[in-house]
Amino acid sequence: MSSAPPATTVRLTIDGREVVVPKGTTVYTAAKQAGIEIPTFCYHDRMAPLGACRVCLVEVEKMPKLATSCTQEAGDGMVVHTVSEKAQAGQRSILELLLINHPLDCPICDKGGECPLQDNTLKFGPGQSRFVEVKRTYRKHLRMGPTLVLDRERCILCWRCVRFGEIVAGDDALQGFERGYHSQIATPQMAPVHSKFIGNTIEICPVGALTSATYRFRSRPWDNRAVKSICPHCGCGCATTLNVRGNDLDRTRSREHPEVNDVWLCDKGFFGYEFVQSPERLTAPLVRKDGALREATWEEALDRIAGALRETPADAVGVIGGARSTNEDNYLLLRLFRGVVGTNSIDFRTDTANPLPVSSAPWGLPGSIADVERADAIVLVGCDLTEEYPIVWLRVKKAVDRGARLVILNPWELEVARWATHSLTHRWGAEAALLEALAGRRDAVEVAAKSGAPADRLRGAAEALAKASRPLVLLGRTAVERPDGAQVLAAAEAIRDAFPAAQIGLLRGRANSGGAQLLGLVPDMLPGYRPIGDADARAAVEAVWGRPVSEAAGLTTRGMLEAARSGALKLLYVVGADPATDYPDAHAWEEARRGLGLLVVHDLFLTRTASSADVVLPVLAYAEKAGTVGNIEGRVQRQDAAVRGPGTARSDGQIFSAIAERLGTELAFASWEAVFAEVAALIPGWAEDARMAPPRPAPVAAPAGAHDDTAPGPAADGALALVVGTRLFDRGTMALRCPGIRGQAGEPFVGLHPDDAARLGIVEGTLCEVRSPRAALRLAVRALPGLHPGHAYVPRGYESAPASVLQDERGPVAVTVRPAGGGA
Amino acid sequence: MTARVLSGGTLAEIARLRGLYPRAQSALLPALHAAQDQVGYLTPEVMEDVADALGLTTTEVSSVASYYTMFFTKPVGRHKVRVCTNLSCYLNGAEQVLHHLCQRLGVAPGETTADGQVLVEAVECLGACEEAPVLLADATRHPRVTTAAIDDLVERLR
Amino acid sequence: MPDPLLMKYAGQPGREAIAAYLATGGYEGATRALKELTPDEIVALVEASGLRGRGGAGFPTGRKWRLTPKREGDVRYLVVNADEGEPGTFKDRTLIEGDPHQILEGVLISSYANGVHQAFIYIRGEMFLGQERLSRALAEAYGRGFFGKNILGTGFDLDVVIHRGAGSYECGEETALLESLEGRRGEPRVKPPYYPAVRGLYDRPTVLNNAETMAHIPHIVRLGVDGYKAYGPPILYSVSGHVMRPGVKELPIGTPLREIIFEHAGGLRPGRAFKAVFPGGSSAAILTAEHLDTPADFDSLAKLGSMLGSSAIIVMDDTTCIPAVIRRTIEFYRDESCGKCTPCREGTIWLSQILDRILEGHGRMEDLELMDNVAQQMTGICLCALGESVPPALRASLRYFRDEYVQHIKTGTCDVAPAPVAAGGSA
Ligand SMILES: Cc1cc2nc3c(=O)[nH]c(=O)nc-3n(C[C@H](O)[C@H](O)[C@H](O)COP(=O)(O)O)c2cc1C
Ligand code: SF4
Ligand code: FES
């Protein structure tokens, strides 16, 4: 397009006030800057002006007609009146026309008290209506799925929700149907709305037409206390506000953070809060007595743990978890286990068997989440973005709208494929080869043959990438969490060599993983990403802790499980994690469990892991404690306590202090702020909202080997390569207790390419036995036309059918799929 | 992905139409015409097929279809009789024309005869005011319609 | 009075065959334009001819073409508006059915003049015969090398696509038409900031003209400015309603209404008296007997608070119930409103509800005040001209025929009989 003209400003007069704004600013924005309020409905500052509702009318001298200020560009010397008789008459007319068909059922409307239509009518509207005809009527309160309720009578057709779906989310969830005075917001045949972002439309709807099924009639806005919080789900750490009445958590709303979530949230963030006040929360410690878990006092439980820690040699003690705790909790964890107990076997990565060393492959983005929208080419490799990190997708969408090229490499087609310039599905395991082809290191035709991705598209993708000046490569767990993950990483680095401007990110981690990594909840690191081998780093820590820190790297989660199996590890301490379900090899976990002398678990619920533990301690959830958490940008954000926890539940940190005390060490801090301050002394730059991205990683040496052939292809006996995927709406421990999420997750399933299903003579919906060398699951078959043939897709995160029972920590497995009961 | 309802012929036609425009979505209206010509009206499945054929979402397709009066999302008569009721025809007895036609077919405007043969619609100006009152029987325009003319039209359509 | 220019051969049997068109000098203008004239010379010609768009807005065509940025290598489009939907207007259909090559030749010249290589003709969905004839004509013209690659050996390429609408008056509005052509709902785009000339189809500069406008172009090139002007310059009036000889009347622009109606259209039916007229389609304020000597041109009609619009003249005699006619027009706008903007969507339904009450005998005197006020409030605040087209006729009727409304409110009826439908065989 044409090169931008030199940025200049214009000077105009609004209601007698001089305003100077950059050229291109609208009159509405200029007025806002001057503190002058003009009513709006269709205009939303995150979307281009539409000029549809017409309420923002102003009088511009020398213009024949009133102008809509949201679309009118401010001109030099313009004289604007927003409160002249003419302007006000225009605004009044629109409000009167909007109200003639509005039910005015405000007393029973959720929006009451926070309704722009109500407010604007009060400030700018007509006295009373002259409308004596019959109002437009529709069937009220249509349920559009588990989270959304639509009331078309209240709708003022501002088109915000429709345009949110078109412009911001790109999911076309709601659309305008019919026309004229029959125009209405709907989905085809009023089917449940299909979206991961619909909560945002509830937020931006200027009336009570779109309301939340989980919040409806819960409360009136003026009864709500607003508490700053951070979303506890995926690793993005979106800023939220919790609405609280008494001790009841009523709803989650988005809170603006320009660098993180802007003003948006995904629906897991909006509707994933109800688990906090589930009646199934653990309220008292449980201790295993003659085979069964029984309620116990805190003293009993803590003594049992302290006793065991005293008797167990440090190198036989391991700790996994921390992603669900605050940074302050985790810092106390470190002081207790690294400092007092003296073990370095600490790992927050409880859901992977093949983690790459943090030093060469730190989890997270190379820059801020906002930076993603500034890339001009984005390559998604084995990362199901809308399922794993929805808010990052909104940035990718913006980048695409700005002309960025989107390349997707994945064993199954992503739901956002239609926005991609090149979307390639391929055989799982071919990622490294494909990346090398993109980097121009390998011949597209040869790689296409190996990977099953079409050569022309692969070449096209390579060309698209070559044209970019700010490429961003985002690797996901599907790509790297295999024994050959290092090759994939090395291949990604090949792209950086080919295009030095390229940035690489590893999209991994949930909740506070970012903070856990930053504090060093890994076997070989100290706070601030400093290697444990670094003597100065150790000295600094020892100085503050007054305790020696061993320089020997500890064990990873997998290492600890292996040690437990061999009897070398006796005591495993699990902090807010459920490895029995999430560790990608349930069988390996069970064997390890048998080898353990003592298993301690902190959790909110009696998870699979907890129910097999010797001591279970009830802890506080994110909404019940203040502190800080870190996200996939390494940003440290603060959350406040919104509600009281159940029973005698304590924070992880309080528990660690209590144990330390029993081991003879004073670890008492006056407040979380005091802990925060001590961390600041160890990590330069540690501060609220500071973003501490890991240092640029040291390149990994790619182990040689025919790395793109490790995925077992379809065998004659109909064996398929098992691929496990993440779903935003799942039925895990937390989601199960959030009706809004559970309702959308549906039943667990196995996805097959229609051709494979046909080859195996299986029709959609058939209940099948999915058998791996490890074990079998019974799952209904779903046809996935976008899945690359030769694979079986099983979602993780279903408590009733954990994919991990099929998985093997040593590498990919092949599965057979046969109608349950039928077949051999 | 194989089509649910649309025939190979229709899909080929849609592919041809798609090729006429710089952007696939521009082919949506002609594609919906083609689909409707094959099936008679636009069922949800038909609209899914069209969406797939043009790389659009079904929501977008059905939203667009619902806007235009010539697209039907419910079953309608094989024959479509459109009676102009706008000014010039109105001034020349369009109301009586519509009334007589409906009476002969035993339907109200907007309805299809019980045998599913004939849809009667009151429509806006057909741009043939010099021939008022005018009606369109499928693709054929009938000028200066009289009750007698209506009677033998009804015969021919039955 | 000069013999007709645009209508000279229109409607002759087989006229859509290219042979017939060529036999009467067809495509000579285009040949001359492509071989002897530069694009700029053609734009200058059209500007000098004084041609004003025939779609309704009457915007000077030459100036519109000048407004279209002509940067080298930029993709530009030409879009012909053949969606003719303004009530009472049938000139475009008459040309399309009666002499389609005339329009195609205009498309060829206009595309060349504007550096356009891809043109679209958006034709009204219900215009079945027109679609058939225009498509046949286009196919034949392609066959003779007037379209496609290297036209007439000049190296100029042009492709034309006939795009069929699907039932929406609003899609005649230029920006709604572009939305529809892009495969979306026919909802208008807000103007300003961008007009089609600068940012139109697919956000590219787009020359958008009415079908009749296109038909004038070959003659301007063929006859030159003076030769063309000698014809009036000509304009096509669509005359209908209560007249003896309705039809398209090609006359010098500015012919007085009285002459058009009583001479060229054969006057009223025997024994009938003149009551009122829409001089420019139903979007124009109605006029009465006292205005009959007004020249039917853009400025004179504008002075009366009405407009020439698409030059559709709908005549009403004394059998006409004005409130009923106005209700019909309001219903039309209500049903054709896209629903995107508030005043048009809600104003039309409100007004039609009030009119229904009045005509059903439940009117109140204050309703007249209310209707006029609602209409006045709608004026100037709608997103596109459809909404702006609602008030003029209604408000004029309240001014000139208030007593008819009052009679309905007071007595619940009026004393004009609706015209009966002829009983005899089809003419
Ligand atoms: C509601 C509405 C309907 C219109 N319908 C038509 C139409 O059917 N044909 C047409 O040529 N112009 C129509 N117009 C005018 C167009 O917007 C546009 O001004 C015209 O096509 C430009 O061509 P011209 O410059 O040759 O007149 C309509 C305008 C409005 C507001
Ligand atoms: S539902 Fe709400 S946001 Fe959507 S168009 Fe209606 S008023 Fe606007
Ligand atoms: S806010 Fe400006 S038109 Fe709606």
Description of the structure:
The complex is a heterotrimer of chains A (824), B (158) and C (427). Chain A is 28% helix and 19% strand. Chain A has a seven-stranded mixed sheet, sandwiched between helices. Chain A has a six-stranded mixed beta barrel with strand order 30-34-31-33-32-35. About 1% of the residues of chain A have low confidence. Chain B has a four-stranded mixed sheet, covered by helices on one side. In chain B, α3 packs across α4. The mean pLDDT of chain B is 96. Chain B is an alpha+beta fold. Chain C is an alpha/beta fold and 427 residues long. Helix content of chain C is 43%, strand content 13%. In chain C, the strands form two sheets. Chain C has a five-stranded mixed sheet. Chain C starts with 17 loop residues before the first helix and ends in a 16-residue tail after the last helix. In chain C, 58% of the residues are buried. Chains in contact: A-B, A-C, B-C. Flavin mononucleotide binds next to α4, β5 and α15 of chain C.
Note the main attributes of this structure:
heterotrimer, A: 824 residues, alpha/beta, 6-stranded mixed barrel, 19% strand, C: 427 residues, 5-stranded mixed beta sheet, 17 helices, 10 strands, 13% strand, disordered C terminus, binds flavin mononucleotide, binds iron/sulfur cluster, binds FE2/S2 (inorganic) cluster
What layout of secondary structure does this protein have?
The complex is a heterotrimer of chains A (824), B (158) and C (427).
Chain A: E1 9-14, E2 17-22, H1 27-33, E3 57-60, E4 67-68, E5 79-81, H2 85-100, H3 116-124, E6 142-143, E7 148-150, H4 160-169, E8 175-177, E9 184-186, H5 198-204, E10 210-212, E11 225-230, E12 239-245, E13 248-254, H6 267-271, E14 286-289, E15 292-295, H7 298-311, E16 317-321, H8 327-341, E17 346-347, E18 377-381, H9 385-388, H10 390-401, E19 405-410, E20 422-425, H11 431-438, H12 444-451, H13 455-467, E21 471-476, H14 477-480, H15 485-498, E22 503-507, H16 513-519, E23 525-526, E24 530-531, H17 535-545, H18 557-566, E25 571-575, H19 579-582, H20 586-595, E26 598-603, H21 608-611, E27 615-618, E28 627-630, E29 636-639, H22 652-662, H23 672-682, E30 720-725, H24 739-745, E31 749-752, H25 754-759, E32 767-771, E33 776-783, E34 791-795, E35 814-819
Parallel strand pairs in A: 1-5, 16-17, 16-25, 18-19, 18-21, 19-20, 21-22, 25-26, 26-27, 30-34, 31-33
Antiparallel strand pairs in A: 1-2, 3-4, 3-5, 6-7, 7-10, 8-9, 11-12, 12-13, 14-15, 14-27, 23-24, 28-29, 30-35, 31-34, 32-33, 32-35
Helix pairs in contact in A: 2-3, 4-5, 7-22, 8-22, 8-23, 11-12, 11-15, 12-13, 18-20
Chain B: H1 8-20, H2 28-39, H3 44-54, H4 58-67, E1 79-84, H5 87-91, H6 94-105, E2 118-123, E3 135-137, E4 140-142, H7 147-157
Parallel strand pairs in B: 1-2
Antiparallel strand pairs in B: 1-3, 3-4
Chain C: H1 18-23, H2 28-36, H3 39-49, H4 61-67, E1 77-82, H5 91-98, H6 100-113, E2 118-123, H7 128-143, E3 148-151, E4 156-164, H8 174-181, E5 206-210, H9 211-229, E6 234-241, E7 247-252, H10 257-264, E8 274-278, E9 287-288, H11 298-303, E10 312-317, H12 322-336, H13 342-359, H14 366-378, H15 385-388, H16 390-400, H17 402-411
Parallel strand pairs in C: 1-2, 1-5, 2-4, 6-10
Antiparallel strand pairs in C: 3-4, 6-7, 8-9, 8-10
Helix pairs in contact in C: 2-6, 2-9, 3-4, 3-6, 3-9, 5-6, 6-9, 12-13, 12-16, 13-14, 14-16
Bound molecules: flavin mononucleotide (FMN), iron/sulfur cluster and FE2/S2 (inorganic) cluster (FES).
The site of flavin mononucleotide has 25 residues of chain C, from α4, β5 and α15.
